[in-house]
Write a structure and sequence with these properties.
Largest sheet: 5 strands, parallel
Number of helices: 15
Strand content: 5-15%
CATH topology of the largest domain: Rossmann fold
Radius of gyration: 23 Å
Shape: globular
Mean pLDDT: 90
Strand order of the largest sheet: 2-5-6-1-7
Low-confidence stretches: 98-102, 112-117
Number of domains: 3
CATH superfamily of the largest domain: P-loop containing nucleotide triphosphate hydrolases
CATH class of the largest domain: Alpha Beta
Distance between the termini: 39 Å
Number of strands: 9
Length: 345
């Protein structure tokens, strides 16, 4: 059975952990005196945002003082939160004393002081106060947030709960542009202060060790395979998946690997770039040394004209600008994809 998984939204059997990012969020949320009750995980598609979010949620779910609630961003988030808290085995014990119940999605809430309240924001507030008295904390996770009415409403309520020092914590994942769009909403400026964890490339050495262990190959071959991924989490899964399916045919494995990257990730990324972004990416792909001076010359740009696009592409996670005066693609085989699609677009 192939140990690699190319499905989005589930935890793959074989994966590379991110100990630094994991510890950063856990230490902040689980501290006795908390300074941050919200974290945003940002990165390009396939960068492992959901995997890290689920790992954090699963860890805290096994800790005695935590109640973890996973919300669907397409649903009424406040109602969903109320229903899931009421359905939680621990919380239901706290809410057991009601004489008159309130039904949310068919679930009866047993909270005396909220039984006659039509305001869901107030209902959640009362529930959180009861949970706070028990010494517990609530972690809410939301995957792939966008600037939707549901998210804006929930974020506004969350801000109120923070002001009341209630024990609710929020962990969200999202694409850079979606998080930026949400942060720019009037009355949600508190999100600007929310720390963001960028999903940087995985450690090549750890990927190499995984390939060596799974495929029973030598150090040199394992490192060569690892370098083909550039540390991109989905590429680790896709390359392993393809080589497992085509163990005796590397040419076929590489063809399948390329197709998986394009079909699952690159075509969507490309469709979301502006015409100018695509032009800059074409310039980067055509200049192998990545020097901005060469890119400017190739595209006939003025000295500082590339700067706003450079910053945006870096934040999107598809370009690396760590080396001064140099821009390189972060995604494996993306240069070839850009060259073909720009020329044939």
């Amino acid at each position: 059975m192939n140990p690699f998984d190319i499905s989005f939204g589930k935890n793959p059997k074989e994966n590379i952990i991110r100990p630094v990012q994991f510890k950063t969020v856990i230490d902040a949320f689980d501290a006795d005196i908390t300074s941050n009750q919200i974290y945003m995980l940002s990165g390009v598609r396939g960068s492992g945002k959901t995997v890290l979010m689920n790992r954090i949620a699963n860890y805290l779910e096994n800790e005695k003082r935590w109640v973890v609630v996973r919300l669907n961003p397409e649903m009424n988030l406040l109602c969903s939160l109320g229903a899931k808290l009421a359905d939680n085995s621990f919380c239901s014990g706290i809410f057991r004393k009601a004489k008159i119940g309130v039904s949310i999605f068919g679930i009866s809430l047993e909270i005396p002081e909220v039984a006659d309240s039509p305001d869901m924001e107030l209902t959640i507030e009362k529930m959180l106060k009861a949970i706070k008295k028990s010494g517990r904390r609530v972690l809410v996770t939301i995957d792939e947030v966008t600037n939707s009415a549901q998210i804006r409403m929930f974020a506004s309520s969350f801000q109120i709960y923070l002001g009341q020092e209630l024990p609710i914590f929020l962990l969200m994942t999202g694409l850079y542009e979606n998080i930026e769009d949400l942060k720019n909403v009037k009355n949600l400026t508190f999100l600007y202060r929310a720390p963001r964890v960028e999903m940087t490339p995985l450690n090549i050495g750890m990927i190499s060790l995984k390939f060596k262990e799974i495929f029973g190959i030598g150090d040199t071959e394992a490192l060569r395979m690892a370098n083909l991924t550039k540390g991109f989490p989905f590429a680790f899964q896709a390359l392993g998946f393809s080589f497992w399916n085509n163990k005796d045919d590397e040419k076929m494995a590489m063809a399948e690997y390329r197709q998986l990257l394009e079909d699952f990730v690159y075509e969507k990324i490309w469709s979301e770039l502006s015409p100018k972004d695509k032009s800059i990416m074409y310039g980067i792909a055509r200049c192998p040394d990545g020097r901005i001076s060469h890119i400017n010359s190739f595209l006939n740009l003025k000295k500082d004209e590339i700067n706003p696009y450079r910053k945006r592409l870096i934040r999107k996670g598809i370009v690396n600008g760590d080396e001064y005066g140099v821009l390189k693609c972060t995604l494996p085989l993306f240069e070839e994809f850009v060259l073909f699609n720009y020329s044939n677009g």
